[in-house]
Amino acid sequence: MPRPIPRLQRRCALALALTTSLLGTGVVLAPQSSAAPTAATAADADGAAIVGENWLDARTVDLMVDSPAVGATLPVRVILPTRYAAQPNRTWPVLYLLQGAHDDYTSWTRETDVAAFTADKDVLTVMPSSGPTGIPTDWWNNGSADAPDYETFQVDELMGLLAQRFRAGTKRAVAGVSTGGYGALAFAARHPGTFGAAASYSGILDTTAFGMPTVLNAIVAREQLPPQTLWGSPLFQRDNWTRHNPYAQARHLKGTKLYVSQGSGLPSDDLGNIEGAVLEGVLWSQAHRFARQLEALNIPAQVHFYNGGVHNWPNWRQEFKASWPTLAAGLGLR
């Protein structure tokens, strides 16, 4: 895969400086050696419970889920397969769609035609909340045992509930935008065998690459949360950062069907979204680095790097549909 040429590297360095002024400051650190991920877990609600259902139409329901892992009640949107009621004894493959930063669980139905797109596809589509930052992970919170754990909520608790309530099967795929793209690849790497496919659209795939701790800490700060509560200090809790880094855990993606897309951001035709262009440019180099890591590990991936493009839904809508063959293969669909 092509390496970014020096001009692009200089451009991304400039973009990082601009993004820092827009989003905040943070510490940077090169990635260290990887640690072993957690094993794939069987579907088990693990104390979680559905405490509310609001049906929006015949296929779409908003759930309220009491999550012990997060310590809160969280919303989840579910779109049923069209033939769900007609096939009461069948289990269904599950597609997780993860939100981006500072958004919510409704973003995929608000910004895309996912309900119409999946109408002829035999898949249970699930859009869980990842909290206000949109980073679906187990937070550090200074080592507190009560830190919110969105990863356990989504990978363990919710999967168990979906199996109990909606006949979710064991074929799964996960995709996400921005911080949700991070979540998709992190989940697949940290829970090998749980997801047959994973797709990232403009995701943070190398969390300790130059500038990425700055971006992540800025996301945390924007929600007025204490600094370094995500995974701790990139210096003093470096092992924790490594455990959550898709780049460092990439070897565990072997056997998972992968799709990775990323725009260069600058130059951009969207002059009304300079911040989105800058952020996309900042993510450009680390996406290339992640792709080269996959190549070095002989892990195949469908990769789409495109010039221009900003950090926004018009690009992600196209990339989601372009990634569907990869996701469908992981779901066992034709």
UniProtKB/TrEMBL annotation:
Signal peptide: 1-30
Pfam family, one: Esterase
Alphabetized GO MF terms: acyltransferase activity, transferring groups other than amino-acyl groups
SUPFAM superfamilies assigned to the protein according to its UniProt record, in alphabetical order: alpha/beta-Hydrolases
Swiss-Prot/TrEMBL keywords: Signal
Protein name: Acyl-CoA:diacylglycerol acyltransferase
Organism expressing this protein natively: Streptomyces flaveus
